[in-house]
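Q: What structure does this chain adopt?
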Amino acid sequence: MRIMVMDGQGGGVGRSLIEELHVRFPEAEIVAVGTNAAATANMMKGGAAVGATGENAAVYNSGKADVIAGPIGIVMANAMLGEITPRMAEAVASADVPILLIPMSRCNAQVMGTVERKLADNIRETADRIAQLCG
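A:
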């Protein structure tokens, strides 16, 4: 199983998710895709098998993953203070695999119908859903 975790800014959400996934799925290939080198480096510290940075990395790995996960901004052009390019957002959103989006309030987009919870709870729920999809 190849799980792509994508994040930007400092990569903190991605790192937390990777730490949870690394414990639950030690056999999975977790690919950290950062919009910048700092995000990728931080996610690698969480236990990702490999990491890549930038637009082409996001586009390329979106087509090779079994599951994609990250903050909701990964499917929104110009999210994360402009770090998500339209091409990145399109590649992730168009991937023919399950895409698990963690709600964040910093993207200027609010997902109606969601309950505001701690980030750790959302990360655990994301890992639970990956277990259901791939288990």
